[in-house]
Structure formats: C-alpha cells, structure tokens
Design brief:
Elements lengths: L3 H15 L6 H18 L5 H17 L3 H21 L4 H15 L9 H17 L4 H13 L8 H14 L5 H12 L3 H18 L2 H13 L5
Amino acid sequence: MIDESEATGRVDRLRGLLHHRPLMPLARVGLALLLLTAPLAARAEDSAAGIAAHSLAECEAGRAATVRGVRLAHFERGQALAQRAIAADERNAEGHFALFCNMGEIMRIDGESITSVFQLHRLLAELDRTLELDPGHVDAMAAKGTLLLRLPRLFGGDSKRGEAMLREVVERDPKAVAARLTLAKTCEARGDRSEALAFATRALQIAREQGRADKAAEAQATLAELGEPR
C-alpha cells in the first residue's frame, strides 16, 4: 500500500517531468495521463472493489483463526467493510458476496445452526444479489448450491437444484474442493458410492496440491466414511 507522503512525492516528480522542456509532445501527453491517475491509484484501496477485497481477506483470516474472539473480530470487521463497499457501489458483486461471507460466518460461529429466520433471509438475499450482478460468480454458485442442499424445504432448500449448481461449479472450476466434497457426501447419502469416491478422491488431490490442510483432512474423513482411507 502506498502511503500519502509517498503518493504525493510521486505526483510531484511527475509534475516536474511534465514541465521539462526536452520532452516530446507525445511523452507530455503520457505524463499528463499518469499525473491524472496517480491520485486514483494511491486511493485504490478506498474503491468499492478494494474494500470488498479487504472484507474477503478478513473473512478468510477469521476462518483460519482458532480463538473465538479473534474469529469474531475478523468477521465483524469484514462485515463492516462489506457494507462500506456496497455503500460505495451497490452494483459491486464482490461486495455483496463479502457481506454474505462474513455474515454467514458470524451466524455459525458457535456451530452450524439456524438461529434467526430473518438473518437467514438476509444472508440469502446477499447471495442472490451477488448472482444477479455476476451470474458466473463461482464462489457464490458453490455457496448457493450448498445452502440449497442443506436447508430444509421450509427455509428454501431444494436438493435437486443445489446439486445441479454444484455440478456446474465443478465443471467451471477444475480446482473447486468444497463443492466436490459436498457432492461426495450427497452421492454417498443416496447410495451412489462410486461417484462419491470419485468426487472425494479428486477433492483430496486438489487440496494437497493447494496445501489446504483443512480441506485435505475433510476429504480424508469423507473417504474413510466411504471405506477408502488415504
């Protein structure tokens, strides 16, 4: 990140070059454009996209933390940042997904449970808005598919639609781990052991390639349930 003093120094140097007589006209035009965009570049992290990225980073940091208070602090900061991103640009899909991510983690910080119908509807609304703005948002598709599989029909669950979305995710993203694990468990539940094994085995391979110990452990647990420990 460029601090204010460094950004100001760069702008001043550009101004000095712009007034340097030996410069060719085309070079002057290029420097003028740089001068105009320099303050914008220095403030990139204040854009909706930059704030949304920071929010998602907080969500990931919270997931990686092991102490409840630390986890909650990351998610609460992430939620506040996501709300800022949306306020800056309501059509920023990543901002809505970041809000979904942090809100969802806060809701389940003490375990998987539905504590509030209102919160659940708000959570789903952010996910739907993400997909409305960016229908190809693979992470949002994976999250929606998983929720459709897990939620009771009373709360909007739809197992067939959810499975179809997750299958689309693994077609679009060859490195999707979580979607494969969810599909493995779905296939296992209905007795399709061979396909469950294929999804779980590939998930384990990808998790190991990516160095994701948590997902590798989950894949190994799934394979052990299927009678194929690795």
